[in-house]
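Work Package 4 report. The design task specified in the project plan requires that, given a folded chain encoded as structure tokens, an amino acid be chosen for each position. We show below one input record used in the internal validation round.
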């Protein structure tokens, strides 16, 4: 098991480094709600990673992959989640534009901060769990690192836990980086541009999820 640990962590790094909806959401929440919201989003996302890893260990993700109706249903739900986040980003950007036109002073996004860490945690969790590709990926990814003579079920659950914990630390670097640039991101014009970029990314990911394999 220890011999496969380093290759597994390297593979986890490569997976996390690929930009996707988790990365976009974590950065978005970190900008809008600060460190607490960013970390909560990371924890929610990684709870989803662990859930899908355990589902793969018990064979549930294989059933999902084998059922086109179930897979397509989750795909549509996932697209709706991303669509909602995209629309919310554009609404926030439009609100900031009105505030700029009124020449209001720059202020932190208090509306988002008051939603609390629990809201951000659920955002990360639901975004991950509503992505059927995450389920199928866990099913194909984890078994590659199970030693030949190790019990498959406990080994895959352990790997799923390591995967989730490792990504908590990895994605926390994104949160930390945003906080290091807090003065820059606190400017309303910058936040408006970031909301527009985030909204575009989310809508693009939603569209791709809808048309994929359709």
């Amino acid at each position: 098991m220890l011999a496969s640990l380093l290759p597994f962590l390297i593979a986890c790094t490569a997976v996390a480094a690929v930009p996707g909806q988790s990365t976009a959401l974590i950065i978005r929440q970190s900008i809008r709600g600060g460190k607490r919201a960013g970390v909560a989003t990371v924890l929610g996302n990684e709870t989803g990673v662990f859930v899908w890893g355990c589902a793969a260990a018990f064979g549930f993700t294989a059933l999902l992959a084998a059922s086109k109706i179930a897979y397509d249903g989750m795909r549509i739900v996932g697209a709706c989640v991303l669509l909602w986040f995209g629309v919310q980003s554009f609404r926030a950007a439009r609100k900031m534009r009105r505030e700029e036109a009124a020449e209001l002073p720059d202020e932190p996004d208090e509306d988002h901060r008051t939603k609390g860490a629990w809201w951000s945690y659920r955002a990360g969790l639901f975004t991950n769990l509503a992505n059927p590709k995450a389920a199928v990926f866990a099913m194909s990814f984890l078994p590659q690192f199970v030693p030949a003579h190790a019990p498959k079920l406990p080994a895959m659950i352990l790997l799923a836990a390591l995967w989730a914990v490792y990504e908590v630390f990895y994605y926390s670097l994104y949160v930390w980086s945003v906080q290091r640039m807090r003065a820059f991101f606190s400017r309303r014009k910058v936040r408006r541009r970031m909301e527009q970029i985030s909204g575009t990314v989310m809508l693009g990911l939603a569209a791709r999820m809808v048309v994929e394999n359709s």
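Residues 2-211 form one domain. Validation will be extended to a larger panel in the next phase.
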